[in-house]
Amino acid sequence: MGGGKGGSDFDPKGKSDNEVMRFCQSFMNELSRHIGPNTDVPAGDIGVGGREIGYLFGQYKKLRNEFTGVLTGKGLNWGGSLIRPEATGYGSVYFAAEMLGTRGETLKGKTCLVSGSGNVAQYTVEKLLQLGAKPVTLSDSNGYIYDPEGIDNKKLDFIMELKNIRRGRIKEYTEKFKGATYTALDAKMDHNMLWTHKAQCAFPSATQNEINGKDAQNMVKNGIYVVAEGANMPTTIDGVNVFLDAKILYGPGKAANAGGVATSGLEMAQNSMRYSWTREEVDNRLHMIMKSIHKTCVDVAERFGTPGNYVNGANIAVFSKWPMP
């Protein structure tokens, strides 16, 4: 699961619900012949949440006249799973907690930098708060906010309403909470200012290539020693090498953000059984999956002589699952 990628150049910003629905329906008219519960199973990603998945699933059901687990991230009323929207963010935090556990530490009291403000970032912040950490940043494509007092549950509720319902910009956070600052994205800069703040943990949860070599150097210099990737490939190869050379706890996305795909599998299992697990049951299964992935990375890395190298552990573990030619 999780091997294919696809999308479109449709920009949903400023579009009405009806315009988004019509696009999703047209997109599914062509996509439907290429997907299926035993073929490829799409899920949400950047710009695609429960609303879009619902429009896509409704059109698929209309075209095929069948109710199957062909898309994940669906609403609960049409076969979705509890915890699926939260899964990637929760999973990356669980993975970070496991990495810290190898040094006898926890997330409690740790200051955390989080990028993005979509599902992954929102639920990363939520789980960090549950585990006693202090998230201080969030971002969107225009810039980022820094709140030295920490983003608490009340502030997170505002962000969820802002991004999920009003579909506004993160800058509005500083108009509501005066202690925070906003920094606009400067395309001319060779680094991202979000990663220059002092902290212990970082959760890149926005998009690919958001951390380059200079960003990684800034992070290590300013005290970051735990990085758990919630986005897909958010760190360039130069940045990855900085993290590995510094021997920090670096969880690559193929391991640290696997909770989303794993819970998609749990959603498909529930669809097949025509059964819905409780929130606690799904969250517990997700937690156990992330603990298992972490243990696999650690064990494989040690077996091949690179203890603590989660990149080697994840890569070798993945490739070893497939028969060699």
Can you describe what's shown?
It is globular, with a radius of gyration of 20 Å. The longest helix is centred in the C-terminal third of the chain and has 25 residues, at 279-303. Strand 3 (137-140) and strand 4 form a beta hairpin. Helices cover 46% and strands 8% of the residues. The protein has a five-stranded parallel β-sheet with strand order 2-1-6-7-8, with helices on both faces. Strands 3-4-5 form a three-stranded antiparallel β-sheet, with no helix packed on it. It has twelve helices and eight strands. With 325 residues, the chain is of the alpha/beta class. Helix 3 (87-101) packs across helix 4.
Describe the structure in brief.
The chain is an alpha/beta fold and about 325 residues long. The chain is about 45% helix and about 10% strand.
* Fraction in beta strands: 5-15%
Unreliable residue stretches: none
The helicity comes to 40-55%
- What is the strand tally? 8
Q: Give Rg in angstroms.
A: 20 Å
Question: Order of strands in the sheet with the most strands?
Answer: 2-1-6-7-8
Straight-line distance between termini: 21 Å
- Taken from the alpha-carbon principal axes, the silhouette is globular
- How many helix segments? 12
Structural class: alpha/beta
- String of helices and strands: HHHEHEEEHHEEHEHEHHHH
Mean pLDDT: 94
Largest sheet: 5 strands, parallel
